[in-house]
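[User]
Um, tokens okay?
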Amino acid sequence: MTMQDRVAVITGGRRIGQVVARELAAHGAHIVLSYRGSKASAEETAEEVRRRGRTATIVQADVTRQADCAALMHAAETAHGRLDILVNMASTYGSTPFEQLTEAQWNRDLAANLTSVFFCSQAAVPGMRKGRGGRIVNFADWLAASGRPAYPGFAAYYVAKAGVIALTEALALELAPDQILVNAIAPGPIVAPPDLSEAELREVAAATPLGRWGGEQEIAKAVVALVEADFITGETIRVDGGRHVR
């Protein structure tokens, strides 16, 4: 798919999402950004998109709610007249020991990391069908893609991201007749959390065969590759600097 004058919806437009939005705009796409609480951050990204000569729309939405996802896609079609690309980036990441996980925490993690992908994809498909095709790019995790839980305390997160991979495969099969291609990206050490110490930063880099953190641009490159591909569907691409082979 060529991106010139296509319309891309991106959920979770902070940090890496900002770079993805800029890169899609640089390739010619118009951008719709959802945000839950940080309107200023979404507007900053939208301004960067506009400076590249593309249109940008921001929409407040809680993507764990089906009605908000439907409203988000409706806003995209109303503002731009079409819907071609969905990048499901909205996610939460937190650690809770298994024995301390509450029902509310379990439901929260699955809703933010998995159910949101289902709701947004379901809401986006009718618009993509009108355009006779589309692309959905989901976000998993390199550990889930490798079948390696690795770190205690992340049961809900790991299960949700494994579910994203399964959902990606299921949707790829169901939507193939409509020429809607569905793939996932499984990031590894891309951007360090703000609370990591220098020693922890070095430890992660040392555990990565390429010897460094990847940076946001590597994710943006992968998103562009999957959007532009015309014969890849149902795949999960690890962008992890080789962590899964060590």
Notes: The chain has a mean pLDDT of 96. The domain at 7-239 is CATH 3.40.50.720 (Rossmann fold). DSSP finds eight helices and seven strands in the chain. The helical segments are 16-26, 39-51, 66-80, 103-130, 142-146, 155-175, 198-207, 216-228.
